[in-house]
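2024-03-11 09:14:02 INFO receiving multi-entity request
2024-03-11 09:14:02 INFO entity count = two
2024-03-11 09:14:03 INFO echoing inputs for audit
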Amino acid sequence: MTKNDSKTSTPGAPKTARGARTRAKILKAAEEAFGSMGYHQAGVSDITRLAGVAQGTFYTYFASKEDTLRELVRDMGQKLRAHLASEVKNASNRIEAEGLGLKAFLQYVAANPSLYRVLQEAQFVDETIYREYYEAFGRGYLRMLADATRKGEVRPGNDEVRIWALMGLSNFLGLRFALWEQDVPIDDIVASITDLLSHGLALDPKG
Amino acid sequence: MTKNDSKTSTPGAPKTARGARTRAKILKAAEEAFGSMGYHQAGVSDITRLAGVAQGTFYTYFASKEDTLRELVRDMGQKLRAHLASEVKNASNRIEAEGLGLKAFLQYVAANPSLYRVLQEAQFVDETIYREYYEAFGRGYLRMLADATRKGEVRPGNDEVRIWALMGLSNFLGLRFALWEQDVPIDDIVASITDLLSHGLALDPKG
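2024-03-11 09:21:47 INFO inference complete, emitting structure
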């Protein structure tokens, strides 16, 4: 599949800072192409045109369009996780961190609408790409919940179940209130979810 | 686009019980075809073959493959909502209903795996199909939460936000624990979410 396998070894991580910039430029262009045209419509030539690089340069870093999608989803996930981690780092407890994280996530989705489209479409190229994206989030989340439980900030519980519930909650809030319509102020959404996580949904908890 | 527009008026709702059965058979076949082959690969001829009906019969009820997808998603939503409503009807309060509803949903997804695939793929055919599916769920959910709040079972809050959070939560739990892996007993998942909705995530709620 690679066009340059006679000239170079397997495409992969760049060895220089310049290489890293070129690779990042290609991923950015792929995000733009997949986000606006859709994965199936977009071709490698659209990506190279948007990135302003030659085909050969593309194949120095990526084996195929599918490889670019896989790396793009991984890259988007890493960037979003780093962004969220930095936004919540001053939180004094887990519930506050959840609120700050949700706020940062909603802002991020509004500013980066292609994230959802690329991610959703990746399911139909290779479901493991989509699954790995959430599993990578889940691993970090699992550690944070376990820490918070140990510190007595969070009720003990089945964290594997809780992290998927929390990821699903954010995912749909992002879809509805950041991507589709921005008709509810983000602070109201965050207040509502902070209340839910602080007290539950029940007015008078039993049991 | 319709093949029989010279012979009949717009395709649509069947007028007889036999017609309703034929239409249901076509939708079931479309679910099978889209679920196993994917929407883009599946053709009208695959649907008619699986349903055991002639092309002409297909076009009596549906204008196109896309029309079938739209009706299928609507039909899947109605069936699932009816199923959930019947499963939660004996619940004594909203939190219990949430638990019973989640249990029924997870069982339904495990038994009907094509629901997710068809729904996810519908986004790329026409996003309004996907959005309407969740908005239809949301309208019922909104009434139930408002009722429960009035009865004093649920904390007052922004229900528009809370229903999307709750739908997202169920959606990801279904994806992870019913569709991808069934490695956690459904009762454990339900217990975990019931605890979350009864008490929140915080051990010692503040504010």
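2024-03-11 09:21:48 INFO post-check: Chain B has a mean pLDDT of 91.
2024-03-11 09:21:48 INFO post-check: Chain B touches chain A through 54 residues (CB under 8 Å).
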